[in-house]
Amino acid sequence: MTTDFRKPSRRSPRDRIVEAARDLFRRHGIRGTGVDAIADAADSNKMTLYRHFNSKDELIVECLRHAGMEMDGFWRELEDAYPGDGLGQLRSWVRRIADHLGDDKCQCEMMSAAVQLTDEDHPGRSVIRMFKDAQRDRVVELCRRAGVADAELLCDTLLLLIEGARAAQQSSGAEGPSARFAEIADAAILSFAGSGAAFK
Amino acid sequence: MTTDFRKPSRRSPRDRIVEAARDLFRRHGIRGTGVDAIADAADSNKMTLYRHFNSKDELIVECLRHAGMEMDGFWRELEDAYPGDGLGQLRSWVRRIADHLGDDKCQCEMMSAAVQLTDEDHPGRSVIRMFKDAQRDRVVELCRRAGVADAELLCDTLLLLIEGARAAQQSSGAEGPSARFAEIADAAILSFAGSGAAFK
DNA sequence: CGAAAATGTTACTGGTCGGTAACAGCGCTG
DNA sequence: CAGCGCTGTTACCGACCAGTAACATTTTCG
User: Are B109 and B22 in contact (CB under 8 A)?
Assistant: First the structure.
């Protein structure tokens, strides 16, 4: 029984550090965030940070892992909300992304990191890669369950539209092309699901 | 003392600095590139750099402007190759982007900069914004000339796909969703141009 | 030519960064 | 209680970074 009242409503320093790091990375970029600032924002200190993570790079990797796990949770919620309904899950997924495009906390940590981790050998890049591959498998399966003939094509179409919406949000703002993302993505889904053919 | 082996016609130090900066920004990121490295790569020195640009931020802005001017030139080439042919220009534009997706020198400086310039007030952001707005106007006009009914919708669809392809290239590599960008974008163009309707 | 303008060289500043050492306190559990 | 592991504090290191000063050199052009 770990009722754990020792520090009410306060998570472990490690969790707070990861949380603070993700927040600061989102707001100021990875390279623009110093470890001192992270430790400070986590209401902790640099030594504790370095006891849990051997380097800033290791912390970055852990942040990416956490972001991936958060997405895993969301996929599970989606399956619970629309059990076995591929089409419903797809549309709900798109809608949710559209709704969160404007958030300061939009789920673009992976994309941002991919751009900022310029070193091709950075360990974070393989985490991103694995996450993206898993995501693609999942979406393809949903498309298949939705009765789409060319499931891979709809999947890639949606993934491009999503990444594009996030990127466009960054460079063109909320009134740019990303404003019509939901409309476009939903039309693509319905088009594929209706005829099973691409864009026709 | 040093015998002057310089090539007779050499671009000005200013141009070399901008060129070197753009190259290094692409390869190592904006924050990951120091002014010393830029001056060195330009075969110049830091003092000359700072005589032409009052700050690194000013140099960044100039790099973005150059990138924008390069695109302007490309649009002009496109108009020359397909005079008055909106559809031809659109398809050629998409094909060219697809062909250059894998390039180390792919035209994603704007997107990268938008992600890396985390400060909302950075002067570079307005350059990016103006460039994106102009690009959107241009593409909408091409769609209109191609006989597309909802020109804005096709334009935004293509812009999302393009940004998405570039982002996906970064995070998922060449075998990810970006591999089918050309196919998807071309299908979208033909679909809109054929029926004038969205995805149907 | 000769002078002005542009460019190059060296050395420096003050600040930030990632990372570490030494030490002190806290909170468990035996 | 004692002991131990986790956490916090301070100070420090070497490297790097943006930006500047003073001076030497080359290029341009009237």
Answer: yes
The DSSP string of B82-141 is STT-HHHHHHHHHHHHHHHTT-TT-S-HHHHHHHH---TT-HHHHHHHHHHHHHHHHHHH
**Whether B51 CB is under 7 Å from strand C:** yes
In this structure, is the dihedral angle defined by the CA atoms of residues A20, A25, A30 and A33, taken in order, positive or negative? negative
Which of the nucleotides in strand C have any atom less than 7 Å away from a protein CB atom? Answer: 6-11, 16-22, 27-28
Q: What is the pLDDT of residue B195?
A: 58
DSSP summary character for residue A147: T
Q: What is the pLDDT of residues A13-36, one digit of tens each?
A: 999 999 999 999 999 999 999 999
Give the gyration radius of chain B's Cα atoms. Answer: 19
User: What predicted TM-score, i.e. pTM, was given to this entire model?
Assistant: 0.93
- The size of chain A, in residues, is 200
Asked if B162 and A164 touch (Cβ cutoff 8 Å), the reply is yes
Q: Which residue's alpha carbon is at the shortest distance from the C1' of D25?
A: B1
- Looking at residue B75, what is its pLDDT? 96
Tell which residue, B163, B157, B181, B27, has the closest CA to residue B103: B27
**Is the shortest CB-to-strand distance from B200 to strand D under 7 Å?**
no
Instruction: Check A165 against B164: CB less than 8 A apart.
Output: yes
Q: Six-digit token pair at B121?
A: 């007030």
Tokens at residue B149, please?
Answer: 């009914």
Residue B89 identity: Q
Going from the C-alpha of A109 to that of each of A57, A83, A179, the distances in angstroms are: 15, 28, 20
Dist. CA A162–CA A182, nearest whole Å = 9
Per CB-CB distance under 8 Å, the chain A contacts of B136 are 172, 176-177
Long-range contacts of A187-190 (CB under 8 A, 24+ apart): A187/B198, A187/B199, A187/B200, A188/A154, A188/A157, A188/A158, A188/A161, A188/B199, A189/A87, A189/A90, A189/A91, A189/A94, A189/A146, A189/A154, A189/A158, A190/B199
